[in-house]
């Protein structure tokens, strides 16, 4: 795995592509969630109730810190440079969409001083979707983070967190993507139109110095990676119009100072 990551980072450096590295996925996809940490804890005799103990159990969090530190101070097998000294990596993300029913994900946020004590050169973010909680009572009914114990605003009021991210899951877009190729009314032009709308908004915000600084799309895959298909995949070589939309946005964003 590390050898593969070394290769990706070296290629990204070659082509001038800045990277955001997410250290864990809250879901089981792509090797995520926390079963391995739970198994280690159980083998050590630690009582574990469920996967949410990842966020609250001191022993399990110690395992996560150890693994996180191993990545931060790890030396590339290709460049012989430590990950924490690599300018190609612009940011670490603690986890993709952390959720904990009993802890408001505070334990994840509380890892930030530890990470910064090892690497204060890179930006750091949490990786939350943008769900509101009790800190914004008039909005939490619209985007209810309290149902999964996250609070986007209060969780980001932490000194070590450098910026926030949001994950957009518009209902109609989600429906189209989940029914990719199954509904006769579906076409990739619908997806491209949606991307254009979102990208235009992001560009306008960034150009005017407001909230957004950029936007990414989930997920772009190379050919022959069918095992990673999840209904959201975009293979650029197979979707020239979509590739053009993304390329145009990238070119526009380079003009934003």
TrEMBL record:
Species, as recorded: Populus trichocarpa (Western balsam poplar)
Enzyme class per UniProt: hydrolase
A Pfam family recorded for this sequence: GH5_mannosidase
Enzyme Commission number(s) from the entry: 3.2.1.78
Positions of transmembrane segments: none
GO function term, MF aspect, one: mannan endo-1,4-beta-mannosidase activity
Record's protein name: mannan endo-1,4-beta-mannosidase
Domain of life the protein comes from: Eukaryota
Domain (Glycoside hydrolase family): residue spans on this chain: 1-171
Keyword Signal: no
């Amino acid at each position: 795995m590390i050898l593969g990551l070394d290769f990706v980072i070296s290629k990204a450096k070659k082509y001038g592509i800045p990277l955001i590295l997410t250290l864990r996925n809250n879901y089981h996809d792509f090797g995520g969630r926390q079963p391995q940490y739970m198994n280690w804890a159980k083998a050590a005799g630690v009582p574990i109730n469920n996967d949410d103990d990842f966020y609250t159990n001191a022993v399990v969090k110690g395992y996560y810190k150890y693994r996180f530190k191993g990545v931060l101070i790890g030396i590339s097998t290709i460049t012989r440079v430590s990950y924490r000294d690599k300018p190609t990596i612009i940011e670490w993300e603690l986890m993709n969409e952390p959720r904990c029913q009993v802890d408001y994900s505070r334990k994840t946020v509380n890892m930030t001083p530890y990470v910064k004590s090892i690497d204060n050169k890179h930006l750091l973010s949490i990786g939350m979707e943008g769900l509101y909680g009790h800190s914004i009572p008039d909005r939490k009914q619209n985007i209810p983070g309290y149902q999964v114990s996250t609070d986007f605003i209060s969780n980001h009021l932490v000194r070590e967190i450098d910026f926030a991210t949001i994950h957009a899951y518009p209902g109609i877009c989600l429906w189209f993507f989940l029914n990719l190729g199954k509904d006769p009314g579906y076409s990739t032009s619908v997806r491209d139109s949606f991307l254009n709308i979102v990208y235009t908004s992001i560009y306008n915000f960034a150009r005017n110095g407001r909230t957004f600084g950029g936007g990414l799309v989930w997920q772009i895959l190379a050919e022959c990676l069918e095992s990673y298909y999840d209904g959201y995949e975009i293979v650029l070589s197979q979707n020239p119009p979509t590739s053009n939309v993304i390329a145009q946005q990238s070119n526009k964003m380079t003009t934003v100072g």
